[in-house]
């Protein structure tokens, strides 16, 4: 297994985390499967996003590899909050150009804060060999592209049975948080004891020194039931500690109060709230606390106000 261990204190102390999701190519879980390799730099939110991408790729039949030359798909999850992180991402991206030229059917996907909510024309022009540009926390563009390519290949080979199966996969919708969505945590090596779970995406503060709102979009809280279901699935895989993530984690639920993009009806239905009250971080912590088998709950990053 080549997955490095990451120390939560490293992020809190301001250190960059470089992280790769990969296992040996000969893994018995994926014999003969097409392979992916994910390179990640940045914070725990990026790591959680990369884990989600890995799960979605494994749901359509891809297996991980630690060897770049054996990969069919490479995903770069980037960070531009600091210049050193951006420089590393640019260098890694440049090194992939000859890798792509060696085999035209290979796929490069770029995601994270370098892409932001929408890739800039300058970014698209600078890296024409990148096949897919994805916003943070979003795996759908890559999955759709890979499905389309595989369907076309099966049609050319007149493999009707496989074609029908691919169409069935294309019609499936598996929400985040199920056992299928997080099974990669066990497939990528020993099941981890701790895991990161995003609860708030984006940020609506306009701090003059921070680029996050422009790259990750406005604040969006996930419904309580969705988060609880995801953590239950993680616990079923052996996880005993979760870290709840948000750019300002104690702003959880505020976007619903302020008329944002949240769906408070979904959350109210889960909690049985009588007066239409919208849950906050304390309510979420109480709900997560009730999950059997979960020993410890952490959260970051909080705001002093």
Report on the structure:
The protein is 40% helix and 17% strand. It is an alpha/beta fold and 305 residues long. The protein folds into 2 domains: 8-140, Methylthiotransferase, N-terminal domain (Rossmann fold); 191-300, Transcription Regulator spoIIAA, CATH 3.30.750. The strands form 2 sheets. Strands 1, 2, 3, 4, 5 and 6 form a 6-stranded mixed beta sheet that branches. Strands 8-7-9-10 form a 4-stranded mixed beta sheet. The longest helix is centred in the N-terminal third of the chain and has 20 residues, at 83-102.
Helical run tally: 13
Count of folded domains:
2
Q: What letter string, H or E per element, gives the SSE order? A: HEEHEEHEHEHHHHEHEHEHHHE
Beta-strand percentage range: 15-25%
Instruction: Specify the CATH homologous superfamily of the largest domain.
Output: Methylthiotransferase, N-terminal domain
Nearest-integer average pLDDT: 75
CATH-defined architecture of the largest domain: 3-Layer(aba) Sandwich
Q: N-to-C terminal Cα separation, in Å?
A: 42 Å
Q: What would the principal axes of the Cα set say about the shape?
A: globular
Structural class assignment: alpha/beta
CATH class of the largest domain: Alpha Beta
User: What gyration radius follows from the Cα positions, in whole Å?
Assistant: 20 Å
